[in-house]
Amino acid sequence: DTAVSQTPKYLVTQMGNDKSIKCEQNLGHDTMYWYKQDSKKFLKIMFSYNNKELIINETVPNRFSPKSPDKAHLNLHINSLELGDSAVYFCASSQAGGGVSTDTQYFGPGTRLTVL
Amino acid sequence: AQSVTQLDSHVSVSEGTPVLLRCNYSSSYSPSLFWYVQHPNKGLQLLLKYTSAATLVKGINGFEAEFKKSETSFHLTKPSAHMSDAAEYFCVVSDPQGGGNKLTFGTGTQLKVEL
Fold first, then answer.
1. At B100, is the pLDDT very low, low, confident or very high (cuts 50, 70, 90)?
2. How confident is the model over A5-29, as a mean pLDDT?
3. What is the DSSP string of A44-112?
4. Do A45 and B102 touch (CB under 8 A)?
5. B110, exposed or middle or buried, with CB in 10 Å at 0-12, 13-18, 19+?
6. pLDDT of residue A100
7. Do B100 and A110 touch (CB under 8 A)?
8. What Å distances lie between residue A78 and A16, A18, A53, A90, B72, CA to CA?
């Protein structure tokens, strides 16, 4: 059973298009996250939702919009894709709803987005 | 703000020899520190985490790390490298925010294991 799953695994699209990446966790966790890994493998947090509420929103272009229909799902929608959006996007989830610093985050397999 | 610095971008060892991946942290209070591993084209897997319960932390696959406050370090070690250890390793510090945790990643260390 996959704990944190993402679809699609690969996404190739043209500049200017709109695309979505879906994430689901079956761990019963309260908090979910989106991270971006660039071509140099640097990972940076983008967003976090706790029980469907946005709690972390880093400096990300407003073309990126997360949506959490329920606490098991956190989708990422990207409008007007640009070349610089090419990266691997990782979803993660964690148990705690109170921001416990030792809480482990469990990562999905990643979605490799290529913008042509 | 908390941060971590991974001192080596690449480390190469021979199979069967010890592994040392170095990480220094910067924090104004006692940090929560993690090591994650990423195998090629895979997601991230937790190796171990420091929670202040013990300074020597044992993780999966024979890895361990020691928290040294005086040196602000959290180096990852393994006594004997295996070919399957070849991967990217990330030292991470956690900063609670709202109802979640903001993980700040180091720049990664690529471990190469040679025969």
1. low
2. 96
3. EEEEEEETTEEEEE-S--TTEEEEEEETTEEEEEE-S--GGG-EEEEEEEES-SS--TTPPPEE---EE
4. yes
5. middle
6. 67
7. no
8. 10, 6, 19, 14, 39
How high is the pLDDT of residue A97?
56
- Spatial neighbors of B95 by CB under 8 A, at least 6 apart, are A101, B1, B2, B101, B102, B103, B104
Give every CB contact of residue A47 below 8 A, 6+ residues apart in sequence: A33, A34, A54, A56, A57, A58, A60, A64, A66, A74, A76
Tell me: pLDDT of A81 over 60. yes
Residue A5 β-bridge partners: A24
Q: How confident is the model at residue B31 (pLDDT cuts 50, 70, 90)?
A: confident
Rounded CA separation B94/B28 (Å): 13
Mean pLDDT of A61-67: 93
pLDDT over threshold 80, residue B63: yes
Closest in A42, A45, A97 to B107, CB measured: A42
Do the Cβ atoms of A110 and B102 come within 8 Å?
A: no
Nearest CA in chain A to B109: A41
The count of CB pairs under 8 A between chains A and B is 89
State the amino acid at position A90 in one-letter form.
F
DSSP bridge partners of B65: B57, B76
What's the pLDDT at B98? 63
pLDDT at B56 over 70: yes
